[in-house]
Amino acid sequence: MTTRRLVLTRSAAVIGAASTGLLLPQIVRAQSDKVRVGFMLPYTGTFAQLGVAIENGFRMALDEQGGKLGGREIEFFKVDDESNPAKGVENATRLVQRDKVDVLVGTVHSGVQMGIHRVARDTGVLNLIPNAGVHVATRAQCSPNVFRTSFTNSQPTLALGKAMVERGHKRAVWITWNYAAGDEAFEGFEKSFTEAGGTIVKKLGLPFPNVEFQALLTEIASLNPDSVACFFAGGGAAKFLRDYAAAGLNRNIQLYGSGFLTEGVLDAAGPAADGVLTTMHYSDSLDTPRNKQFRLEYAKAFRSQPDVYAVQGYDTGLLLIKGANAVRGDMNNKQALYAAMRGAEIDSPRGKWTMSPAHNPIQDMYLRQVVNKENKVLGIAQKAVADPATGCRMA
Ligand code: PHB
Questions:
Q1: What is the 77 CA–ligand 1 centroid distance (Å)?
Q2: Residue 141: CB within 6 Å of ligand 1?
Q3: How far is the CA of 134 from the centre of ligand 1 (A)?
Q4: Residues 144 and 14 in one domain
């Protein structure tokens, strides 16, 4: 099969070369191999489920194309990054140098992303970010070979503050893990909440991935704000929701968050999540044929309900397919590959979104509320939210 395709490809290249007067030896060699795709994702620790959902979504998009990229077979490589920033560079280097991946899909944790980013910028490998929202990757250190299909950390919370004030909540405590994702989510929250007339009573934090929330919940009770806003995700988010309810705070202090708080954790959190309000670029209940079909197919394939991470993984696949098809699988034709991805409009289960010049989605943010273990959409909190992309100069 490979040999036959090689022969066909070669003769096509020869015809092409003859007609254009160009010789295309690298193209022929590249097209005879499989496209090498590396997943660098968390498969253990508090973000383990997020990594699995991203990989599932990504594979689903490729399976819809017959499991090929631009006509070429795919070979997958995997590294568990454990959400450990200290091993970020080493793990990314392993995929790039040892496994020689054409594209590195990763990751979830902003600190680990910085390791990948260093390797991507040093080696020029194509990096698709399916989650981590660290600002600098699409701001001052934006790169032609780095594309994000998820969000920047401040995007969801840029839509949160106004929604809170509109619901009569003006005195909020902010709580998060103290690392880039939490700090940058605060940036969006602070801007949107104070501009809408809200006051931040206090900022609270704990180290990632610590889940000893008790002392902080006691402090919240004594501060007696009218609302709490937060960034947590994965296993830690489920624990925070349970502890918040167990402390009785959910009875009179409305809990808000960037939507990760209630993604993939609704079974684990149970009734503790009821009524929680969040802003996010996706909602389970989006009533569109695209979303319904996606949810049905995902549930069939993976025997679980998709969440925002699955959608982001799926969209990462869609983006790569657009790029690979534009260059007919020749991943070495970087200029044309990147041009196709830069101009992409993605027909996503979250709704259509476009890639900004800094390589980050411009997308609608929904206001959602947890009802019966589902993120129900209440409306669009903010349309076409774009990250400011401060300092991005695309080389
Ligand atoms: C991040 O570290 O950037 C991050 C992690 C998990 C999320 C969102 C952002 O759900």
A1: 22
A2: no
A3: 8
A4: yes
Same domain, 240 and 317: no
pLDDT tens figures, 50-91: 999 999 999 999 999 999 999 999 999 999 999 999 999 999
Structural domain total, the chain: 2
Query: How far are the Cα atoms of 175, 198, 213 from residue 191, in angstroms, in the given order?
Result: 16, 10, 26
pTM for the structure as a whole: 0.92
pLDDT over threshold 50, residue 210:
yes
Task: Report yes or no on 387 lying in a domain.
Answer: no
Residue of the nearest CA to atom 7 in ligand 1?
233
- Are the C-beta atoms of residues 109 and 177 closer than 8 Å to each other? no
Q: 3-class DSSP state for residue 100?
A: coil
Q: Is 110 in the pocket of ligand 1 (CB under 6 A)?
A: yes
Q: Are residues 191 and 264 in the same domain?
A: yes
Q: What is the SS3 assignment for 74?
A: strand
Mean pLDDT value of segment 35-45: 98
**Residue 261: which CATH number?**
3.40.50.2300
Q: Which atom of ligand 1 is nearest to the CA of 112?
A: 2
49 and 76 inside one domain: yes
Structural domain range at position 196: 155-280
Q: Is the CB of 109 under 6 A from ligand 1?
A: yes
Distance, in Å, from the CA atom of 387 to the CA atom of 93, rounded to the nearest integer, reads 29
- Claim to verify: residue 35 and residue 68 sit in the same structural domain: yes
Query: Is 364 part of a structural domain of the chain?
Result: no
Taking the centre of ligand 1 as the mean of its atom positions, its distance from the CA of residue 156, in whole angstroms, is 11
* pLDDT for 343: 86
Alpha-carbon gap, residue 52 to 48, rounded angstroms: 7
- Out of 280, 303, 324, a domain closes at 280
Banded pLDDT at 11 (limits 50, 70, 90): very low
Domain boundary among 256, 280, 304: 280
State which ligand 1 atom lies nearest to the alpha carbon of 260: 10
CB distance 176 to ligand 1 below 6 Å: no
Do 245 and 319 reside in the same domain of the chain?
A: no
Q: Give the amino acid at 266.
A: L
Q: Is 136 found in the same domain as 193? A: no
